[in-house]
Amino acid sequence: MLSRGELLRKCVHVGAGGFALTLRWLEPWEAATAAGLALAFNLFVLHRVTNRTMLRPDELERGQSRGIMLYPIAVLGLIVVFHQRRSLFDFIIKAGP
Questions:
Q1: Where are the alpha helices (DSSP H) in 1-97?
Q2: What gap in Å lies between CA 37 and CA 90, rounded to an integer?
Q3: In whole angstroms, what separates CA 77 from the centre of its chain?
């Protein structure tokens, strides 16, 4: 049986996958805005809302999960770097989660 924290983690992963699927239909500036908002949400809201129950023991010691911060940063970076190469952008989305 999954703990509450692990179940919340899995729900966040499903949400992130759903977010990635929407990128195909967004303009680059809209996708970059969405990734920036996701990063801000993860930094300032997510752990307050979940009362840090999503964090694993080693992450509790550090105070945050690196993956939760790195995913929207990576998505934002890819959008910024490859915004003019829509075919590559579509390929990344097709190869995603």
A1: 4-22, 28-44, 46-49, 57-62, 66-82, 86-94
A2: 21
A3: 12
